Amino acid sequence: MGTIILGSQWGDEGKGKLTDRLLNELSFDVCARATGGHNAGHSVRTGGQTYSFHLLPSGLINPNTDNLIGSGVVFNVEAFFKELTQLESQGVPHLHKRIHVSSRCHLNFTLHSAVDGISEEELGTNKIGTTKRGIGPAYSTKAARDGLRVIDLYHESFEQKLRMLAEGYRKRYGELLTYSVEDEIQSLKKYKEQLRPYVIDAVEYMKVIREKKLSMLVESSQALMLDLDYGSYPFCTATPCSIGGCIQGLALNPFEIRNIIGVVKAYSTRVGAGMFPTEQGGDIGKMLQEIGGEVRDTVLVCSGVGTTGRGTTMNESSINAGSGSDYNPNVCRSIGVTGEDLLNTRDIDITGGTGSGRNPNTRRDRDNITSDTDLNDDEGVITEAQSLRWALDTIRISAVLK
Questions:
Q1: What is the number of alpha carbons within 13 Å of residue 60 lying toward its C-beta?
Q2: Which CB contacts under 8 angstroms, 24+ apart, belong to 345-352?
Q3: pLDDT: which is higher, 139 or 358
Q4: Is the pLDDT of residue 10 over 90?
């Protein structure tokens, strides 16, 4: 039934690219998001256009794929319609018939975004580096059982509950909270009936998928090292980004998961604040940003992934970076590697000017060289296309075996 795509680093590994490739070549019936919110950022380039996804599943590009925003997602109504409008303007067919929203999704309010910004300012130099889109506060109110779900929009008590939630934050932050609960209520009134056709009982939806034996591709958000439990806490997101989050967020039957694909880049990047041992600053970092199109990211060279004549080598410490363990909580069955083409560009020298073909060491002591990986060796390199092809072949073999 299910194939799951997971990020194995700090996000931005190319999950959207792989999602689009798999949907086109293997014709999944459904594409789903399980957790996170409109803080995700998946870009897909196809047919001469670039499509950007934040809240919506990127499976919407494929006209034959149904799409679900699962119960574990925090849902921002305004962002939902803004993204739909953009995709519609780009000519995505049958858009509104192929997207469904779980009635159990917790709502991500403008209130949450306002609180997120204040919280980051309070942290000062220790700030997490969030998107300030209110994802953390939305999950906080969910865990505290003060949150409101999509289905609550259609209950008489909705306005009263939102006012109570806003009043609680007002007591905490006082005049620092520049937010009007009445403006938000009026905005949601405008969207409420517009949203109704998309809202479904996602548990019943998943039941039908099982009964009809339909195939599902799960597109996870962020990545393992941003996971709330297994990531670089507290410099992480507020949601589970691992296999467990996908199962919980969609009510997946774990016995029906056919494949789990961990996506890594041949170099590592991350957004926000927090530790990043192999960070590259200066000209090297700028060069990798420009060539890799990493305009949002701090670029690092990851010492455990190479594209040498020895094949694509994967060091456990690279996939589980910072977890302090050789065990990967995502228990991936396949690895899809992106970004090798960047590191195989003949004009790139990622050695920090040493000319040794080796990676600089950590931020703490870059003068020490500890990796023998030669990322500039052009003999027998494994291209990104080959790596993605292997992932596809693995899924096909898995399907045959089952």
A1: 30
A2: 345/291, 346/378, 348/287, 348/288, 348/291, 348/376, 349/284, 349/376, 350/267, 350/280, 350/284, 350/288, 350/301, 350/375, 350/376, 351/376, 352/280, 352/284
A3: 139
A4: no
d(C-alpha 355, C-alpha 226), whole Å: 33
C-beta separation of 391 from 217 below 8 A: no
To the question of pTM greater than 0.70 for the whole model, the response is yes
pLDDT-derived band at 295, boundaries 50, 70, 90: low
Give the separation between CA 277 and CA 279, rounded to whole angstroms: 6
**Catalytic: 116?**
no
- For residues 375 and 219, what is the distance between their CA atoms, to the nearest angstrom? 30
pLDDT at residue number 341: 46
Catalytic residue chosen out of the listed positions 12, 66, 116, 227: 12
Of 220-224, 288-292, 310-314, the range with the highest mean pLDDT is 220-224
* pLDDT for the residue 333: 55
CB 79 within 8 A of CB 40: no
Question: In the numeric block, which tokens belong to residue 140?
Answer: 């906080």
- Give catalytic status of residue 96 as yes or no: no
- Among the listed residues 38, 42, 100, 112, the single catalytic one is 42
Which DSSP symbol is given to 149? B
Cα 402 from Cα 397, distance rounded (Å): 9
Residue 127 has pLDDT above 50, yes or no: yes
